[in-house]
Structure formats: structure tokens, C-alpha cells
Amino acid sequence: MNTSLYFRQYKKEKLYTVESDQTQRDPVLGELEETAVNRDSGFGIISLGAKVEDINREEKKDMRTVRRNKVFEHIALHREKSVDELAEDLSMSKKTLVPLLAELEKSLFICSTGTGKKGNPKKWRAAIDSPEMEMKEIVCK
After folding, report:
1. Cα distances (Å, whole numbers) of residue 86 to 28, 44, 114, 136
2. Please, what is the angle between helix 94-106 and helix 52-77, to 10°?
3. In Å, how far are 20, 49, 109, 119, 141 from 38, measured between CA atoms?
4. Where in the chain is the domain with CATH 1.10.10.10?
């Protein structure tokens, strides 16, 4: 059985990765998916980190949380804003903004007035002062 190791450098992310390719698949150990390589510069010890796929998934999740908090904070400071106004204020597309608003409303952090139809747009306001508040302090009804 032959195993080849492929190393990559992602300069922008300052990340080195490794993955393996086997001529005959080992059913027990299998191949090494693209995985981050960690190096301790003090001791020169090299070890394997997390899978690159997992790292990317976590980064996406973090970005979603940052955007969601940005939307909530803006709504808390500027009451009664429509989707169009929020999109313009936050420099976000409606495609990105609408799911975040739905998520915040479902979580009871914000609430809306209006039907969302022409002439009566939905306007959003904070239901609580901050996401850390307890649910008993909700002010929307």
C-alpha cells in the first residue's frame, strides 16, 4: 500500500494543511481529510489540528452570529425600521437580512408591526434590551 501526503499553504489565512491519498484504501484507518497542521514555534513540535471543513463551518457560524448581533443592536437603537431601511442602514442585502430578522423574531428578541404588504410594511423593534436578558422581560405582545 502506498500513501501520499499533500501539504498546502494558505498564505492569506496563514494556514498549513495536510491530506493523504492511498493507492489501496485502508478500511480501518482510511485517508486523512484535509487537516490543519499546528506548529509550536517554541519547541518545534508539529501536530494535527482540526479538519479544514470544521474550521470553515465554525467561521461561517461565527459570521452569522456577528451579523445577527449587528442587526439586533441596530434595531434596538433605531425603532420602527422597515426591511428596506435596515438593509440600507446596515449595508446588507435583503437576502441576508430577512432570514436574520426571522431568526431574531422567532427567538423573541424583536417583534414587528405592519402586515408586510404594500402601504403597510413590516417595521421592526427590539422586544428586549439585549440578547442576554431573561425571557420574562419581553415587552412585545
Report:
1. 53, 50, 15, 27
2. 80
3. 17, 6, 39, 57, 51
4. 58-137
Q: How far apart, in whole angstroms, are the C-alpha atoms of residue 23 and residue 116?
A: 59
Structure confidence at residue 86 (pLDDT): 92
Cβ–Cβ < 8 Å for 127, 72: no
Return the number of other C-beta atoms located less than 10 Å from residue 106's C-beta.
9
The pLDDT of residue 136 is 42
Alpha helices in the chain (DSSP H): 52-77, 83-90, 94-106
> Is 58-137 a domain of CATH 1.10.10.10?
yes
Asked if 127 and 109 touch (Cβ cutoff 8 Å), the reply is yes
Residues of the chain where predicted confidence (pLDDT) is lower than 70:
1, 128-141
How high is the pLDDT of residue 124? 87
Please state, in angstroms and rounded to a whole number, the distance separating the CA atoms of residues 21 and 25: 9
Cα 103 from Cα 68, distance rounded (Å): 8
d(CA 88, CA 68): 16
Which residue has cell 494556514?
15
